[in-house]
Amino acid sequence: MKRLIFALFLSFSTAVFAVENVLDDGDMVRVSVYGNxxxxxxxxxxxxxxxxxxxxxxxxxxxxxxxxxxxxxxxxLMAEGFLRQAQVNVIVLQSKGQQVSVLGQVMKPGKYSIxxxxxxxxxxxxxxxxxxxxxxxxxTIIRTSETPPxxxxxxxxQLFLKSSVDIVKRSNIDMVAGDVIYVPEAPVFYxxxxxxxxxxxxxxxxxxxxxxxxxGGGISVRGTDRGIEIDRRKEDGTLVKLNASLSSEIxxxxxxxxxxxxx
Length: 263
Known about the structure:
This protein is α+β, with helices and mostly antiparallel strands. It folds into 3 domains: 2-14 and 98-183, Roll (Outer membrane lipoprotein wza fold like); 28-94, wza like fold (2-Layer Sandwich); 188-258, Outer membrane lipoprotein wza fold like (Roll). Helix content is 19%, strand content 32%. It has 6 helices and 15 strands. A 5-stranded mixed beta sheet has the order 7-6-10-8-9. The chain has a 5-stranded mixed beta sheet with strand order 12-11-15-13-14, covered by helices on one side. The longest helix has 14 residues, at 66-79. The radius of gyration is 28 Å and the shape is rod-shaped.
């Protein structure tokens, strides 16, 4: 369902954008020379900031802006007599320093480049394949570029199902280099005992015992709605048993136990 929602709401450009930041090791660049298509090169800048370019060999471009690197390459081509005039264009295809990490319960966790055309939170979630079946509807963003790092959350379930289009647009936060998008595993609860489908189910805040039992297929013919128990783990790790009714509220990680009918 989450992936379907994203497919309906999200679209993004895959165009490549040139950036004015300095070139860094690990950056993938495309260098072209006007009127000389055979010199067009796509290469990764080495750990020492070196770019290998046809005819002139190694060039120290690390720390230069794209325009400065263009001038350096043009000057070398002309100084060594390969071209009388050289008009060079450098485009950053992928920048190590311009990446956003998407972690946790998404289909394809990893680092994604801003230069890919993605800009907003939903763009990067879409690039990562969307939230997995185990993923929570609450996404956390950590902005590491601020001191101290800023942390904020977006509840995508409430956002898409209950909010206006304007609110959805305002919540589609623009990402910056170094941001971390984390999708935690969705909280769960357990239904054991005389349920038709005992098992593990995704928890939603405010759920009642009746809703929990319904998730488990209802009470079996051998069960009863009397004497329902909840096993709950306290913050200190101790386990407590609680008597519950159908209207009792459950918490994440609760175990709802349906007793067997006595007669």
